[in-house]
Fold this protein.
Amino acid sequence: MNDLSETRQKETPRRELNLRRTNAIVPQRSVQSRALLAVIVIMSFLACLTIGAVSMIRSTAQSWASEISREITIQIKPDEKVDMEQALVTARDLALSFVGTRDGQILDREATSRLLEPWLGSGLDIDELPVPRLVIITIDENNPPDFAAMRAELQKRVPQAYLDDHRTWVDRLVSMARTTVIIGSGVLGLVFFAMVLTVIFATRGALASNRHIIEVLHFVGAESSFVAREFQKHFLIISLKGALAGAVLAALFFGLAAWWQSMSIATPESDQATALFGSFTIDWTGYVGIFITMLVIAALTTLTARLTVMRTIDEIDHIRSDPGRLDIYQA
Amino acid sequence: MVNASQITYDFISPRGQDGTLIHFENVGLRYGMGPEILRDLTFDIPKRSFQFLTGPSGAGKSTLLRLLFMSLKPTRGLIRVFGRETSTIPQSELPMLRRRIGIVFQDFRLLDHLTTYENVALPLRVRGKEESSYRSDVIELLKWVGLGDRINVLPPVLSGGEKQRVAIARALIDQPELLLADEPTGNVDPPMARRILKLFQELNRFGTAVVIATHDLALMDQVDARRMILTSGRLDLYE
């Protein structure tokens, strides 16, 4: 209560004199500040979009590889000496006897016909053609069975059987996923580099218009650290606002894309997009990336502002105070 | 408008000690490999002194003021400011020494986004002082320079004379030991010039040494003060 009355007493003279609210030493709103804000919003949006896209591609590639490596196929070629149905059961049981297998499913005649339908048409009598039959074994991808031992055992018991562990496909997919992530990271690096340069130049541009403020502060006896702090504060606020806006826009973009995908499920457009990009949702690493981007932009802008202010003061103190170097300016 | 002679200047504490604030000895200055702009300058700025620095345009008055303010280094010679040789003062200590000197620039150098009050209070603000501790001093000083009714006005709205007085008030607010003014009456009419000169005299009476760079002979004739005349880079003193 006492504090409140003291505060009121302190405020009274200001109100009586009708003083305006104290302005910041660095003007809050200027054309250059708005331009810098716009640049930061755009660069932050692009960087966050790239981070989200790379994160999405990586998780999609991982899910492709995971889906393929979760299954192996045993193919049994037809042979007059072999009872196909018996061989299918033998192969399935043999596979399931290995540690690391979970489930085995024999692809029946109808399913096999359906598989061949795109090439041989409907109404196919499978007994008329020497069509190989398949057994699909689901495995524990984290603890896969010993494929070499399984292959050797199958060779002994069912010589017509061929074990496809999908390793070739998985390896190719993993390699493709890695390449995609490397390309994405490269693009991300370039976007970040462009962002760094743009933010640095935009900050310097905005500071150039405030150079007279630095000079006045310096000549009224402000220490370099005080001047730097005033400008840092100003540019930190601008950069946080800009980076936050860009990050929110990017997150909104991914949110809208995911919403569109869920709303248009089972439509050809959505299926195509899902097949190509996977789900539009980004995982927590993507959001962490967006958050880090925000911090990087804010830190970068603030640091650039500090360094530019310190350099300007250094120029006033060292270069412009040295008559030997002034000659260079005058030339 | 407040009459300066009717005001008591409580915010300015009189100083009574004699001595030298600034000492120049054989100071010379040249830009790059060009000719010497200032040659063999030897003089003192005593405490509580009042002097005009004059000479034709381009004689080097502003350059000499910059040397006095330590924003320019001499090519040769010795400058001692507040008893310290400037060539030995670390860069980090310069702001503290500059705080003891008030400077009025020819082009005012006011910050257009700050009010008259804020511009005058700026030196105290950068020293980290609380606004409540200096508010009444700033207002009193603004009244003293005749701007008591222009406290909340932004510089672009002020006349040349008003801007000049804001710049003077800003230079005075922290009670400097030395005031340097570069053509303080260059942008005002003769009555305003007399008024500004009166302000400087009042300030000097309370202990601040004043150096006014001007080429206005009429202004100098109004005061019986020391004259430092720069001609072709050389300085002649007329006590």
